[in-house]
């Protein structure tokens, strides 16, 4: 692809999603794009760019699915779920009746279902009641549709401990389907983190936004974090991926642990 065409492509991707494509990622992007071009039955990359310009609304969504990395798993970066269990347990023990969690960039759902298990365990272990809801969002309608089904093949469910598997999943034709006790806590919705104000009502007690801001530039990261800070409760926490740092992103949040942040007081 000619440099000008590649630059157009990556600018389009950045403008829509905030995802920055470095020069070093060109070969990977081109390989993924080649597959999309074959699927569409188009001849070459120039044909594709024409197609993209004519069908921007629908094709951009497809393009982002092709380009973005959806890797996730149950209990990924497990220490965050240990933190969440303790944090939710404390809120419940303090008598908090309404607890709201936002799992932003939730991909195929393993992360929000792990949060739902964690919330149910906090309720079970305290023996108390609270209204806990988890909003799981992503830019990709494809991953959201998968997550909404709540059905995972056996190898994807492996990180879940066997007693929790029994408690929270039904086995159907060898696959694991999340039980209603998890599903009723969850709402899936398309939210693009580049579009603010976020279409959510605060206040929010816990925001998980892990392993997506790593693809954004620091300006965009700063704006997203500022948006999160506005929604957080006074005691609220923002959790980012373990390899992500919010250092130098202004004064909206302050560090409270390994990739754990709270609103700047
Ligand atoms: C690597 S996955 C992270 C999944 C999960 N948070 C985890 O840590 O396991 C990144 C996700 O971010 C989503 N994404 C990329 N850009 C986004 C944006 N601007 N707004 C919302 N989601 C976005 C992708 O569709 C993908 O599902």
Describe this protein's structure.
Helices cover 46% and strands 20% of the residues. It has 2 domains: 3-67, Chemotaxis Receptor Methyltransferase Cher, domain 1 (Orthogonal Bundle); 79-263, Vaccinia Virus protein VP39 (Rossmann fold). With 265 residues, the protein is of the alpha/beta class. The chain starts with a helix and ends with a strand. The longest helix is centred in the middle third of the chain and has 17 residues, at 110-126. The chain has a 7-stranded mixed beta sheet, sandwiched between helices. The structure holds S-adenosylmethionine. The site of S-adenosylmethionine (SAM) has 24 residues, from loops.
Distance between the termini: 49 Å
Number of separate domains: 2
Number of β-strand runs: 10
Predict the CATH topology of the largest domain.
Rossmann fold
Major sheet: order of its strands? 6-2-1-7-8-10-9
Instruction: Tell me the quaternary state.
Output: single chain
Q: What's the average pLDDT?
A: 96
- Principal-axis shape equals globular
Which value, in Å, is the CA radius of gyration? 20 Å
Strand content: 15-25%
Count of helix runs: 11
What is the CATH class name of the largest domain? Alpha Beta
Give the ordered list of helices and strands.
HHHHHEHEHEHHEEHEEHEEE
Instruction: Please describe the biggest sheet, giving its number of strands, its sense, and whether it closes into a barrel.
Output: 7 strands, mixed
Could you tell me which ligands this complex binds, including any ions or cofactors?
Answer: S-adenosylmethionine
